[in-house]
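[Structure tokenization] protein backbone as discrete codes

[Encoding] learned vocabulary of local backbone shapes

[Begin record] amino acids and matching fold tokens:

___
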Amino acid sequence: MAEQKQKFTEKYAELWKFIKFTLVGFSSTLIELAVFYLLQYVVFKNIAHNPMPDGAFFKFLTSIGLAEGLGIFYAYVISTTIGYIIAFILNRKTTFKADSNVVLSTILYIIMVVFTIIATAWIGTKFQNFMVAKGLKNLGDIITKPLVATLATAWTYPLNRFVIHRHKKPEAVEGAEVAEEASEEAKAE
């Protein structure tokens, strides 16, 4: 069985990375949701629906559906940050085994996360409003978040795989160098 798993992960290396990426995303999302509900219903319960502060930034957040109340907003920001940090670390270390500059990777990841949050909130709000207009609010409530999260994978996986969590040297080149060194050592003997 271990041989079959080994062969699968070698034969379908990119698919295996995508599967690990999906599992990491699912795991970090479960933790994120647990933290969100703990913060919303316990820690920030008393201020959950307090009005947002005045200002253009908070009006923008409200317009894209990210600011339903001060406590909910705090819970969202904290839990999302925790979820994305977990996903970053696990994907960097286990999924892609990246060895690129961690500071640059972190900056690129933060840019991607901010874009993803804004884009998915905007798309989700537009889709939810469409569903309400069609008289399908309950269905919209159920499918909007999974639909938008799946859509975001269209850019988050390629960005994580090829831009954020890169290798300094491709694995094939590293393997060739090791084989070349072994060949040279054998010749020297």
